[in-house]
Amino acid sequence: MSFTDDIHVGTRLPERRITAISADHIKIVALVLQDSNPIHFDLDAIARAGLGDREINQGGATMAYVMDLLAEWAGTRSALRSISCSFRANVFTGDDVVVGGEVTAVTEEGSIRVIDCDVWADVAGRRAIVGTATVALS
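Above: the chain's sequence. Below: its structure in token form.
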């Protein structure tokens, strides 16, 4: 019996915890992406915007934690066919993020199992990201 034989509607993906998002990581991602939005690195700008007193993680970086979970679960990044997410809450410096998912459909395409999932990223008791993803497992 293979890993894919155990997958059915309702199968939960193993949760993954990202501990204490760091300001340095947020700033490095902003530099790499050439993201000049000051909410990622300027505490004064964050306060002026009424967003608190901590740097805010890029939504795409938080979504990448979900994508990492899917790749780890599937065994390869190439298994990810699609992902669509809605950003619902900010992730701040120091926050822990828990990502997870649940299988919503399983179909066969020849020797490939196509798995649809609901996915999410939780922070401080709220859903920062909700979405769907499709992975293809051989």
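The helical segments are 23-33, 43-48, 59-74.
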